[in-house]
C-alpha cells in the first residue's frame, strides 16, 4: 500500500472531522517524524522515537500533555483505534524523541500514527497522519542468496587503476493475482540502481551508504506496489563498484581495503488482494551480464559508457536474454545487515554553466561558475562510435588548460560513446567528481554550447536548515563558500574532499565541523550513522582509527582525531536532543578513553599526538610535517588538554545516563591531569603556556584548565599574539581554530573575532574568497600551495566559524542545560563594524529566527521562538527601562518577563512567538 496515497486519503478523512475537535484553529501540529525521518520505509529501530512540532500564532504556546495513537491500518487510525499503541493522555511537555511503547514491532509491520496535544492554549485536534514501516529485523527474514560474478571479464583490467565494468542482473516473474502491496528490500554492493518493469525505483543515487562491509552493510526498503502489475513482471539491478571494489587494486594492500566484486541480495515481497503472498528473491535462476554499456566505473578515475552496447528493455518482461549468463551464487560480505536510517544521496540541484571557451586541438573548457561535487549531464548528437571525453578540475592553469596536479593520480575522466541516430542525453551512474571546470574533447559536429550541459550537484538528501546574512560582504561570501563545501563533502559519510585520490572520512576534519554544519543542514542521521561506522572500526582493545569507515588502515592512536567520536556524540545530544546516541556509544567511548590513558600516559600527562595543530600558516608540505618548536604547539600539550576535554565530555555523558560512579571517576582524573598539566606547561610569571602559540594558550583556556587568577593574562597573551605579532590575522591550524572565534567572544573581544572573520588578506577565510574560491580550501594559502596538498574543497579549516556566526553573531543557541533547543539562549554580540545580522534555523523543535540591526542611535532585534519552547534573551542595554517590545516597555509586554540585569545586558524570558525589541 503506497504510503503517500494512504496518508493522503487518511488526511482527507481527518480533516472532515477536525472541526469537532476542542482546539483553537491557530494551534497546529506539524512535521511528524519517526527517528527524525518523514514516513520512513523499512526501519530497524524496534522502539522508534516520534517527534512533532507545535505552531501557533499566540505567544507562549506550551505543551502540557500528549496522546499518540499508532495503528496497523489507515482505517483503524481514522477510527481513533490505536491497536498497536495508545499512549493515553501523558502529562508531559516532551515533543521530540517520544519513544514508542506499544505492541512489539515485527519485521514488515506497517504503522500509521497521529498525535494530539493539550497546551497552554487548549487542546489540539489530531495531527495529520504519518507512517513508518519496519524492515527485516532478523537474518532469517532474508530469503534470497547473494549473487554476482566473482571475477573480471576479458575487457576489464585489474591493475592499480582498475577498470571493472558494471554488472547487470535481471529476473522475470509472474504476479498471478491483483496486488495489494509490494515491498522491495535490497542490498546492492558496492552501488546499485533498481528497476521494475523498465522504471527506475526511487530518486537515490550512489546507494547504499558506504560502510566497512565486513562489519555492516546497509539495506534499503521501497514500496513498489505502483510499479508492479498482475501478469508478467521483470526486475533489473545494475551494480557499480563504489567502495566495495576499491578504487585502487593491488596497491598498498596493507593500507587500502578492498572487499571483492560487486554482489546483490534482494527480495520483493508481494501481497495479493486475497491475502496470499509471493517472494521474488535473488538466486541462481537470475540472469546476469557484465557486457553492458557501463564499461568501467571508478570513483577516482571516472565512468566510461558505450551507448552502442545499450540493452533496450533489459529490465522489462519479454526481453531476449539468451546471451546472458546464469547468475552465480557468491559469498556474503560478512557484515551485519542494517537498515539504512540516514538519507541516501540524490541530485539535489542542477546548475547551468556560465561560460565555455575553445582551446587548441578541438577542446573546450566549460565553467560551471561554482566548485561542486557531482557530475556533468550532456546532450549531444553525432554518429555511432563518436566519443566525447570529459575531464574535471577545480582550477585552470594560466594558459586556460585544466590544472590537475592537485588531484594526484586520480584520472577524473568520463567517456561517452554515442549510439547515433538522434539527440542523446547522458550522465554517469556510479561516480562523482569535485570540479568547477570541465575539459570537453571529441565533441561531434558544431561547437558545443552552454545549453548542452548541466552541472548535477550530488549529496545526501538532507534539508537545508539554516540561512545567515550580515552587513559584511566577506562574511557572507565565506558563509556561502562553507555551504558549498559542506554539501560537496557529504557522501553517505563526511569526507575530506571530493576531487583527488583520497575522499576519506577523516575524523579530525569534523571535530567541531559537525557542530557548525548542523546549523546549515539537518545532519542528524548522517552523523548518527557515522558514529556507527566509528564504533565498527574500533579494535577490541579500544583503539579507534583516524579514518572511519576504515577504508584506510590508519590506527595512529592520537587523541585529537579519534576524539571526534565523543564530540560528534555530544553534538547530536546538544543540537538534536539525542540521548540515545550517548547510551549506545558510551561503552565504546569509555573503552577508547581507557585505552589511551593506559597506553600513552607519562608523569600524569597524555603523550601521544600525531598531527599537531595541523595546517598552521604559513603552510607548505615541509612545514605541515615540521616539528619546529618555535612554530608549532607542543604535541603533549595538545594531547593532554584534549584528553582533559574528553574526560569532561564523558563526565557529562555519565551524568546524563545516571552513571554517577563513572562521573566521579572522571572528575578525579580531570583534577589530577589539570594539576600535572599546569605544572608542566604554565609559566606562572608570564601566564603563558609552553611556547605561547595561540593554540597553546587557547586550548587550556577553552577547556577550563587555567587557574582562575591566570585567566585574564592567558587570554591577553592570545589577543597580543593575534593583534601584535600576527597583525590581526589567524595563526592557528585545525586544532586551535576549533575554539578560536568562540574563545575570543566569550572573553570579551568579539572585535578581534570579527577582524579575523572579515579579513581579506592572507591568512584568512576572506583571502580564499578574494582569490576566487567558491568553497573552503584545505590550506590557508591554497592558491599557491604545493600541489601535493591543496584541495580547493575542504572544510576542516572552518573550525568554529559557523558556530560563532549562529550562536554569537545571530544569538541562536540551545541552552547548555536544555539540549535539543528545549530552551534557547539568545545572546547576539553586536560589534562595531557590523551593522546587521539576520539568521534562521529550523531546529528539531521548530523554526528560530534572529535579525538585528544597530546604528549610533538604536538597536533593534526581531526574533522568533518556536512553539513549546522558551528563550532567555540577552539584550544589549545597560538599563532594562530602555528596552521596548512592540512599542511598549519590554517588561510589561505580553509574553515577556524581565529577569535580571547582567552588566550591559538586560535579560528577559520569552515564550514562543514573534518579538520586536528596540533599544534607543
Automatic annotation (TrEMBL):
Principal EC category: hydrolase
UniProt domain Alpha-L-rhamnosidase six-hairpin glycosidase: residue ranges: 464-809
Molecular function as annotated in GO: alpha-L-rhamnosidase activity
Position of the signal peptide: 1-20
Pfam families per the UniProt record, alphabetical: Bac_rhamnosid, Bac_rhamnosid6H, Bac_rhamnosid_C, Bac_rhamnosid_N, Ig_Rha78A_N
Start and end residues of each Alpha-L-rhamnosidase C-terminal domain: 811-888
Every Bacterial alpha-L-rhamnosidase N-terminal domain range: 177-349
Catalytic reaction list: Hydrolysis of terminal non-reducing alpha-L-rhamnose residues in alpha-L-rhamnosides
The keyword Iron-sulfur belongs to this UniProt entry's keyword annotation: no
Keywords: Hydrolase, Signal
PANTHER family tied to this protein: ALPHA-RHAMNOSIDASE (EUROFUNG) (PTHR33307), ALPHA-RHAMNOSIDASE (EUROFUNG)-RELATED (PTHR33307:SF6)
Protein name: alpha-L-rhamnosidase
Organism: Hymenobacter edaphi
Biological classification of the source: Bacteria, Pseudomonadati, Bacteroidota, Cytophagia, Cytophagales
Amino acid at each position: 500500500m503506497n504510503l503517500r496515497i494512504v496518508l493522503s486519503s487518511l488526511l482527507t478523512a481527518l480533516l472532515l472531522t477536525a472541526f469537532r475537535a476542542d482546539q483553537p484553529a491557530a494551534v497546529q501540529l506539524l512535521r511528524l517524524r519517526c527517528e527524525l525521518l518523514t514516513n520512513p520505509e523499512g526501519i530497524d529501530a524496534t522502539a522508534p522515537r516520534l517527534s512533532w512540532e507545535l505552531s501557533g500564532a499566540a505567544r507562549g504556546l506550551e505543551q502540557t500533555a500528549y496522546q499518540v495513537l499508532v495503528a496497523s491500518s489507515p482505517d483503524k487510525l481514522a477510527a481513533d483505534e490505536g491497536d498497536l499503541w495508545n499512549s493515553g493522555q501523558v502529562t508531559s511537555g516532551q515533543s521530540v524523541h517520544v519513544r514508542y511503547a506499544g505492541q512489539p514491532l515485527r519485521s514488515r509491520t506497517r504503522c500509521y500514527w497521529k498525535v494530539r496535544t493539550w497546551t497552554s492554549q487548549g487542546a489540539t485536534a489530531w495531527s495529520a497522519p504519518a507512517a513508518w514501516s519496519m524492515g527485516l529485523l532478523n537474518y532469517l527474514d532474508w530469503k534470497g542468496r547473494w549473487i554476482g560474478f566473482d571475477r573480471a571479464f576479458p575487457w576489464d583490467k585489474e591493475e592499480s587503476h582498475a577498470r571493472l565494468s558494471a554488472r547487470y542482473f535481471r529476473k522475470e516473474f509472474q504476479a498471478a493475482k491483483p496486488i495489494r502491496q509490494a515491498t522491495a528490500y535490497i542490498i546492492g554492493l558496492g552501488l546499485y540502481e533498481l528497476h521494475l518493469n523498465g522504471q527506475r525505483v526511487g530518486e537515490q543515487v550512489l546507494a547504499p551508504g558506504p560502510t566497512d562491509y565486513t562489519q555492516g552493510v546497509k539495506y534499503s526498503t521501497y514500496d513498489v506496489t505502483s510499479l508492479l502489475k498482475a501478469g508478467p513482471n521483470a526486475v533489473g539491478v545494475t551494480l557499480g563498484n563504489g567502495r566495495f571494489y576499491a578504487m585502487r587494486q593491488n596497491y598498498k594492500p596493507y593500507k587500502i581495503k578492498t572487499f571483492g566484486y560487486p554482489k546483490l541480495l534482494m527480495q520483493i515481497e508481494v501481497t495479493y488482494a486475497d491475502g496470499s503472498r509471493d517472494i521474488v528473491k535473488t538466486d541462481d535462476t537470475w540472469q546476469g551480464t557484465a557486457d553492458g554499456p557501463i564499461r568501467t566505473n571508478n570513483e577516482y578515475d571516472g565512468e566510461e559508457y558505450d551507448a552502442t552496447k545499450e540493452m533496450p528493455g533489459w529490465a522489462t518482461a519479454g526481453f531476449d536474454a539468451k546471451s546472458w549468463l546464469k547468475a552465480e551464487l557468491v559469498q556474503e560480505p560478512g557484515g551485519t545487515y542494517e537498515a539504512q536510517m540516514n538519507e541516501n544521496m540524490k541530485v539535489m540541484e542542477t546548475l547551468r554553466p556560465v561560460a565555455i571557451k575553445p582551446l587548441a586541438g578541438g577542446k573546450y573548457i566549460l565553467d560551471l561558475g561554482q566548485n561542486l561535487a557531482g557530475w556533468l549531464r550532456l546532450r549531444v548528437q553525432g554518429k555511432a562510435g563518436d566519443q566525447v571525453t570529459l575531464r574535471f578540475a577545480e582550477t585552470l592553469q594560466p594558459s586556460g588548460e585544466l590544472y590537475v596536479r592537485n588531484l594526484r593520480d586520480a584520472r577524473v575522466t568520463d567517456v561517452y560513446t554515442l549510439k547515433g541516430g538522434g539527440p542523446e542525453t547522458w550522465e554517469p551512474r556510479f561516480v562523482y567528481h569535485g570540479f568547477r571546470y570541465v575539459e570537453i574533447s571529441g565533441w561531434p559536429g558544431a561547437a558545443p554550447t552552454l545549453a548542452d550541459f548541466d552541472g548535477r550537484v550530488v549529496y545526501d538528501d538532507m534539508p537545508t536548515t539554516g540561512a545567515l546574512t550580515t552587513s559584511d560582504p566577506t562574511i557572507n561570501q565565506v558563509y556561502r563558500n562553507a555551504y558549498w563545501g559542506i554539501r560537496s563533502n557529504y557522501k553517505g559519510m563526511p569526507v575530506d574532499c571530493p576531487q583527488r585520490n583520497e575522499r576519506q572520512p577523516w575524523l579530525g576534519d569534523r571535530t567541531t565541523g559537525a557542530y557548525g554544519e548542523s546549523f546549515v543542514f539537518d545532519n542528524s542521521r548522517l552523523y548518527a550513522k557515522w558514529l556507527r561506522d566509528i564504533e565498527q572500526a574500533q579494535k577490541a582493545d579500544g583503539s579507534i582509527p583516524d579514518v572511519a569507515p576504515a577504508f584506510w588502515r590508519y590506527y595512529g592512536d592520537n587523541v585529537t582525531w579519534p576524539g571526534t567520536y565523543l564530540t560528534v556524540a555530544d553534538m547530536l545530544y546538544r543540537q538534536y536532543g539525542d540521548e540515545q546516541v550517548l547510551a549506545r556509544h558510551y561503552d565504546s567511548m569509555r573503552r577508547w578513553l581507557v585505552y589511551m590513558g593506559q597506553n600513552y600516559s607519562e608523569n600524569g600527562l597524555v603523550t601521544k599526538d600525531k598531527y599537531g595543530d595541523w595546517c598552521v600558516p604559513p603552510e607548505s608540505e615541509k612545514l605541515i610535517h615540521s616539528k619546529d618548536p618555535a612554530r608549532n604547539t607542543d604535541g603533549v600539550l595538545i594531547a593532554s588538554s584534549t584528553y582533559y576535554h574528553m574526560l569532561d565530555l564523558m563526565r557529562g555523558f555519565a551524568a546524563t545516563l545516571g552513571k554517577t560512579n563513572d562521573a566521579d571517576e572522571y572528575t578525579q582524573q580531570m583534577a589530577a591531569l589539570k594539576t600535572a598539566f599546569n605544572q608542566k606547561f604554565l609559566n606562572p610569571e608570564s601566564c603563558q603556556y609552553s611556547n605561547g602559540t595561540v593554540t597553546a594558550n587557547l586550548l587550556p583556556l577553552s577547556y577550563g584548565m587555567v587557574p582562575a587568577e591566570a585567566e585574564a593574562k592567558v587570554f591577553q597573551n592570545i589577543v597580543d599574539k593575534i593583534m601584535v605579532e600576527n597583525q590581526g590575522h589567524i595563526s592557528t591550524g585545525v586544532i586551535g581554530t576549533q575554539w578560536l572565534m568562540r574563545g575570543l567572544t566569550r572573553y570579551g573581544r568579539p572585535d578581534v573575532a570579527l577582524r579575523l572573520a572579515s579579513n581579506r588578506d592572507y591568512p584568512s577565510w576572506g583571502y580564499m574568497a578574494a582569490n576566487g574560491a567558491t568553497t573552503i580550501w584545505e590550506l590557508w594559502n591554497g592558491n599557491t600551495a604545493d600541489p601535493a596538498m591543496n584541495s580547493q574543497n575542504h572544510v576542516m579549516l572552518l573550525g568554529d566559524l559557523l558556530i560563532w556566526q549562529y550562536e554569537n553573531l545571530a544569538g541562536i543557541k540551545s541552552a547548555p542545560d536544555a539540549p535539543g533547543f528545549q530552551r534557547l539562549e539568545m545572546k547576539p554580540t553586536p560589534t562595531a563594524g557590523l551593522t546587521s545580522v539576520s539568521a534562521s534555523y529550523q531546529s528539531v523543535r521548530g523554526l528560530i529566527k534572529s535579525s538585528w540591526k544597530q546604528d549610533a542611535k538604536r538597536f533593534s532585534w526581531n526574533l522568533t521562538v518556536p512553539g513549546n519552547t522558551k528563550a532567555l534573551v540577552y539584550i544589549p542595554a545597560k538599563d532594562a527601562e530602555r528596552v521596548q517590545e512592540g512599542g511598549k516597555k519590554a517588561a510589561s509586554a505580553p509574553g515577556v518577563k524581565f529577569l535580571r540585569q547582567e552588566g550591559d545586558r538586560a535579560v528577559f524570558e520569552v515564550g514562543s512567538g514573534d518579538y520586536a525589541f528596540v533599544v534607543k
